[in-house]
Design brief:
Radius of gyration: 17 Å
Order of helices and strands: EHEEEHEHEEHHHHHH
Helix content: 40-55%
CATH architecture of the largest domain: 3-Layer(aba) Sandwich
């Protein structure tokens, strides 16, 4: 099995890699290992982990992972929404569609890293967007079919799950929390996405589908 490192920003994404992505990629000869971002180091040598807090944090962790020559590829599972202002490509994003803009940021991140084994990926616009792919499959998670119907309506109006925007009050997670107030990302996020499944997500999320295809051929 070939080793793939996936740099993730939190426990929800870590669970996704372990329970959904890794089993799928095993069929392509890849052993997927989720690595949480290190957010704060302390004198004892320990660290707190989770969340994108700085560009240096991301770049440093990526370079450490790429320092392992046994890894055939290193990728990221980070939200595009809420990245630091000094993140590669954020300040130079051109006018265009959300997919064109996120592709620009990913390309700039890859250029900064400068390693052919690096496969950049930023979730458009955040992890919760994948729950909008086919929420009816996860209606039992919400214990209310009406919630799934409302999420489907939001995605349809936006033009697709990945086009639910990045506004501070209208991002996927913000709308989800208003539709389903008990929502807790570490609890409901992995279960809902797992229930929906990769085939449904990649069918409705072209940006995610392109990333998955690159991983399958790593």
């Amino acid at each position: 099995m070939r080793k793939l490192f996936v740099l993730v920003e939190g426990q929800t994404e870590e669970a996704f890699v372990r329970d959904v992505l890794a089993p799928h990629l095993e069929g392509h000869g890849l052993a997927s290992i989720a690595v949480l971002l290190k957010t704060k180091r302390v004198k004892s040598g320990g660290h707190f982990r989770g969340g994108v807090t700085s560009t240096a944090q991301v770049l440093g962790d990526l370079r450490r992972l790429l320092g392992d020559s046994s890894a055939v590829a290193v990728t990221t599972l980070l939200d595009y929404y809420g990245l630091p202002d000094d993140f590669p490509g954020i300040g130079s994003r051109p006018p265009g569609t959300p997919r064109e803009r996120v592709a620009h940021v990913e390309a700039e991140l890859a250029r900064r890293i400068g390693d052919r084994r690096f496969i950049p990926h930023l979730v458009l616009h955040e992890y919760e967007a994948w729950i909008y792919a086919e929420p009816a499959r996860a209606c039992w998670v919400f214990d209310d079919a009406a919630v799934a119907a409302q999420l489907e309506a939001i995605a349809t109006t936006a033009g697709g799950p990945e086009l639910v925007d990045e506004g501070p009050d209208t991002a996927p997670s913000k709308r989800l929390a208003r539709t389903f107030p008990p929502y807790r990302k570490p609890l409901h996020g992995p279960i809902a996405v797992g229930a929906i499944g990769l085939p449904a997500i990649r069918a409705r999320c072209p940006h995610m589908a392109a990333w998955l295809e690159r991983l399958e051929h790593a």
